[in-house]
Design a protein that fits this description.
9 helices, 2 strands, two-stranded antiparallel sheet, 165 residues, mainly alpha
Length: 165
């Protein structure tokens, strides 16, 4: 389904970004799509997204012990950031993915915040209070559902940002 959404181009970037997403929980999805019926096609990104993110769960384990997992965390955050950035232009051209562009932008910003937090943590220098406040505001916005999806690495990245202060 991700390949179909990617319109027969490589779905690797879409699969990578989708790996850190989860659909909203409970009956919230019915509330956010009031016009949906049993005849509504299930052809959106939210319909292709698994109910739980293994990638986010693995990242949370890495983040819990960030001192020994910095290299792997940096590798994952870099991939998610780059894939989201590379995906945005294609999403803007695809009618089925246009609603997910803000989600990809948020995913990119979340990953970038995680990378910056790792930089501060690596140097041992505390992050500026203004940077921490700015990142926490961005993470609060990114934690809200968009297109019926959640970016589920937000809590782990938030913990990194808070550790960097």
């Amino acid at each position: 389904m991700l390949e179909r959404l990617a319109q027969m181009s490589s779905a690797d970037s879409l699969e990578s970004v989708d790996g850190i997403l989860e659909p909203v929980k409970g009956y919230t999805r019915d509330e956010t799509s009031p016009g949906s019926t049993s005849f509504t096609p299930l052809n959106r990104l939210v319909d292709a997204t698994p109910p739980e993110s293994d990638a986010a769960r693995e990242f949370a384990v890495l983040a819990a012990n960030w001192k020994t997992n910095q290299v792997e965390m940096r590798r994952r955050l870099t991939r998610w950031h780059d894939d989201a950035v590379n995906l945005i232009p294609a999403m803007k051209q695809n009618a089925l993915l246009q609603e997910d562009v803000p989600l990809a932008e948020d995913a990119s910003a979340v990953a970038a915040a995680g990378l910056q937090a790792l930089d501060y943590l690596k140097t041992g220098q505390p992050a500026p209070a203004s940077w921490v406040a700015q990142q926490l505001d961005m993470l609060a916005r990114a934690a809200k559902p968009r297109a019926e999806l959640l970016i589920v690495i937000v809590p782990s990245v938030k913990a990194l940002v808070e550790a960097a202060k």
